[in-house]
Design brief:
ten-stranded mixed β-sheet, 659 residues, 21 helices, 3 domains, 10 strands
């Protein structure tokens, strides 16, 4: 067989299977374009200059790369299964296997070329759109269309990535054609399917696993210590979901079949009978979609909640416009009044107009790496090897009263305390620095920059702070984090009038004193980089997983439409109307589409307790804020599902009624 004839066969086959082939090419090209865009943006100067954002983008690249190859292999396997009969006919008509493989190779070459071409177009269009979106999220006004550059080198890597994927597909097809006789290939597509049995044992196991997983999720406290239990619960629920789709769905459908009043209605008779067989094939796929939807809703809702709380996070970190951090020995702290006077003179050296300094406060504080126990904060080893570490921020009462305009009094055996996780419970008495203290509630939160379990403590005097330093201070010279080694003084203040160069002068002066300086604007920018990166990556991944899961279901409907067409044609010959076919198929697709969404929503609500408690590590204490985002994301997904449902219903209906 010459090249020209092979090309004609291949072109005719691609055209004959244009519904499935075009969907395969477009969906693959879309996900490859997303991968290309993410790699391009992650390598741009803008992202490389923002370390946290670059790390999140690289993580997104890896996840999308893995999911894309899985999706391409999954959809192509369905196409190969559908073409078994076609390949068998070639053999019966006299074509040798090597000729068949030439045709298959040429078809793959056509699909590869078209996929790559469409990927290049989509990459350019969506690249500009997503780059502008990233700039909007990060409030980077300098980002514009001319900042996104289509990289030939990166596109070459995408071409190589796709080439390897198609090589794997061809190897699978080669094995299928080489190892089977034509009659065997026909039998694969015509083999009778037995009615699935009711899998009671699998259902019971699934129910038990679901109860265990839900119980762990509901009773486990959302903190760093319990992350292992959270992932264990997620894994248990994952297996439970697979078992229940495999077993319980068949039991429910057979139960509906036993209800004669319901079953022997025209549309129910067809849809229930067909669904019993379809669930046998679809159980694993629907379970996968459910798990992906659950992850999508939680990930998107969590990243949106974190991003929208950025102003609260900034306020928890710094409440004044500027902050100068010094070692307490610079001021030689004795009492708050004298420290305030010394601090005022220090700040006055950085500015010409002393009258422009307002709201100056001096904050003696320290942060300690410690070991959390039920009703005690223990001393850590100092090498990060502790099993359940936490952070302890300690401040003085005179600063607290001055900063917040209070007149709180504490006895020597009392402290004020707050914590950053709603899962933590502090008794009326608590052991800190080796001493039992009575607890008063502290009304200021822990900065969200410490995204681990932590306590914030206000002690009566500076002497108490020194006792904490003696007890918790880490003397390990190998420990790089100098923040754990000594008491510091923060001089916080506002400045009247805008001076864009002032922060740089303050930083330069701080270096002379071996200190550090920052501003509210700088901290806002740093958090915007991190939180914006979380949101942007979450959006891109959510788009990918939403489209991926939808396309998985779409492919199921298309290929099963071809499988069911002969059955419906037989029923049409004995009098079944097209209207009834449409009604029954709509019921089936409705079940297959919205069952995963409903189950995913249940999983999400059960997980919401522990997820919300973990959000407390980011200083997010509004359950309604998180649930509002969950409901919003679910609504968006439901709308997208409804649109795909209508489109898929029409395609499936067209396939099963056409002759």
């Amino acid at each position: 067989m010459n090249l020209n004839l092979t090309l004609k066969f291949a072109y005719r086959n691609v055209k004959a299977n244009r519904i499935t082939t075009s969907a395969f090419i477009l969906s693959s090209a879309f996900m490859l374009s997303l991968l290309n865009i993410l790699i391009t943006i992650s390598k741009s100067d803008f992202v490389q200059g923002k370390a946290a954002f670059a790390l999140l983008m690289n993580l997104g690249v890896v996840l999308i790369g893995i999911f894309t190859v899985i999706f391409i292999l999954y959809t192509s396997s369905s196409m190969i299964k559908k073409r078994n009969k076609e390949l068998a006919l070639y053999g019966i008509l006299g074509l040798e296997k090597k000729h068949i493989l030439k045709i298959v190779f040429m078809e793959n070459t056509i699909c590869y070329t078209l996929t790559l071409f469409i990927t290049s177009i989509l990459s350019y269009i969506f690249g500009n759109i997503l780059f502008l979106t990233a700039g909007k999220i990060l409030k980077e006004t300098s980002m514009s269309l001319n900042k996104y550059h289509f990289s030939a080198k990166i596109f070459g890597l995408i071409a190589l990535y796709l080439l390897v994927t198609f090589a794997i597909l061809f190897i699978v097809e080669l094995i299928s054609v080489k190892s089977a006789m034509p009659i065997e290939l026909i039998n694969k597509s015509k083999r009778a399917e037995k009615e699935p049995k009711s899998k009671v044992l699998i259902t019971i196991i699934g129910v038990i696993l679901l109860v265990v997983g839900y119980t762990i999720a509901l009773i486990t406290k959302g903190n760093i210590k319990s992350l292992g239990m959270f992932f264990a619960a997620a894994l248990i629920v994952l297996f439970a979901t697979y078992f229940l789709y495999t077993g319980l769905s068949i039991i429910i459908l057979k139960g509906l079949r036993k209800n004669k009043k319901h079953y022997y209605k025209e549309e129910n008779f067809i849809s229930i009978s067909s669904m019993i067989y379809r669930m046998k094939r679809n159980a694993a796929g629907l379970a996968s979609v459910t798990v992906l939807l659950t992850a999508l809703i939680i990930t998107m809702a969590t990243s949106t909640t974190i991003y929208t709380s950025i102003d609260t996070a900034v306020k928890s970190r710094i409440s004044s416009e500027y902050s100068l951090t010094l070692n307490e020995k610079i001021i030689n702290y004795t009492n708050y009044k004298s420290a305030l006077e010394k601090s005022n003179s220090i700040i006055a050296k950085t500015i010409d107009d002393k009258e422009s300094i307002h709201n100056l406060t001096v904050r003696p504080w320290a942060i300690y790496y410690a070991l959390k126990s039920d009703n005690e904060i223990l001393k850590a080893k100092g090498d990060y090897s502790d099993e359940f570490p936490c952070f302890v921020i300690v401040e003085t009462l005179d600063w607290y009263n001055a900063k917040y305009g209070r007149n709180i009094q504490l006895q020597s055996d009392e402290i004020m305390l707050n914590y950053n996780s709603s899962s933590l419970e502090v008794p009326s008495q608590f052991v800190v620095a080796g001493k039992t203290k009575k607890i008063k509630e502290l009304d200021i939160n822990i900065p969200s920059t410490y995204a681990v379990d932590g306590y914030r403590i206000v002690v009566p005097t500076y002497k108490d702070l020194e006792e904490f330093e003696t007890f918790y201070g880490i003397k390990n010279k190998d420990m790089k984090a100098t923040m754990f080694k000594s008491i510091k003084l923060d001089i916080d203040f506002d400045l009247e009038g805008e001076d864009k160069e002032y922060l740089q002068r303050l930083i330069a002066y701080a270096k002379e004193l071996n200190g550090e300086a920052t501003s509210k604007a700088e901290i806002h920018g740093n958090l915007l980089e991190i939180y914006g990166g979380v949101l942007f990556t979450g959006i891109v991944l959510s788009i990918l997983f939403l489209i991926g899961t939808t396309l998985i279901i779409y492919y199921k409907q298309v290929f099963e439409g071809y499988d069911d067409r002969d059955k419906f044609q037989i029923m049409k010959k004995v009098g079944l109307e097209d209207k009834l076919i449409k009604k029954s198929t709509s019921k089936q697709i409705l079940w297959l589409f919205f069952t995963p969404l409903l189950v995913a929503l249940i999983h999400t609500f059960v997980a919401s307790k522990i997820v919300y408690q973990l959000l407390g590590l980011f200083n997010i204490n509004s359950y309604w804020l998180y649930m509002k985002n969950v409901l919003l994301i679910t609504l968006i997904i439901a709308i997208a599902y409804f649109i795909i449902f209508k489109i898929t219903s029409r395609i499936y209906y067209k396939i099963v009624v056409e002759k």
